[in-house]
Write a structure and sequence with these properties.
Blueprint (H helix, E strand, L loop, with lengths): L1 H29 L4 E2 L8 E3 L3 E7 L5 E6 L4 E5 L5 E7 L4 E9 L4 E10 L16 E2 L3 E2 L3 H7 L22
Parallel strand pairs: 2-8
Antiparallel strand pairs: 1-3, 3-6, 4-5, 4-7, 7-8, 9-10
């Protein structure tokens, strides 16, 4: 008899934790901050002449309005989980442009946005090699001169930080 009561107590305890967790998760969705993922920010490049995806997070059901300085604008709503996504038509290469993303209570301004070609580069450890090479034993020929003479202000680079995970991640 005592064993059955202990099982019932454990079951009630676990159910209580589950219900509390569910309420907490729902509260977090409703209190979600207006934010963009790190991919979107100042100095970014968007693919020219494309209908590009832009996404982020906001409070659930919040209206999101995006205005680009090249004359495009779109509106969407965050879903029940606070996630939103829309597509914005870009023009031919150029810039710098700005993109304003706003909700009811917040506005984000992305500045120095270029439209052009977006290239993805990936590979093994050699993709991380600095312009100096691997000092002191494996320098790149003429690296000091090449670095001193480099002047390519329209080339932008975004490095994705390493993040090992066994489950899919949003960022």
């Amino acid at each position: 008899m005592q064993r059955i009561k202990n099982r019932q107590i454990i079951i009630y305890f676990l159910l209580s934790i589950g219900m509390y967790s569910s309420c907490t998760q729902n509260a977090n969705v409703n209190n979600k901050e207006f934010a963009m993922i790190p991919l979107f920010g100042d100095h970014m490049v968007l693919q020219q002449n494309e209908n590009v995806a832009i996404w982020g997070e906001a409070p659930a059901n919040e209206k999101i309005h995006v205005v680009a300085s090249w004359g495009q604008e779109e509106t969407t709503r965050a879903d029940q989980e606070g996630k939103w996504k829309l597509r914005l038509q870009t023009t031919s290469a150029g810039g710098p442009h700005s993109v304003k993303i706003s909700s009811k209570d917040s506005t984000l301004q992305l500045n120095d946005v270029m439209l052009g070609e977006v290239w993805l580069a990936s590979g093994q450890s050699n993709m991380e090699m600095p312009l100096t090479g691997y000092l002191p034993s494996e320098p790149i020929d003429n690296y000091k001169q090449e670095i001193a003479n480099a002047n390519f202000p329209k080339i932008r680079m975004f490095t994705v930080q390493r993040n090992h995970s066994h489950i899919p991640l949003d960022t």
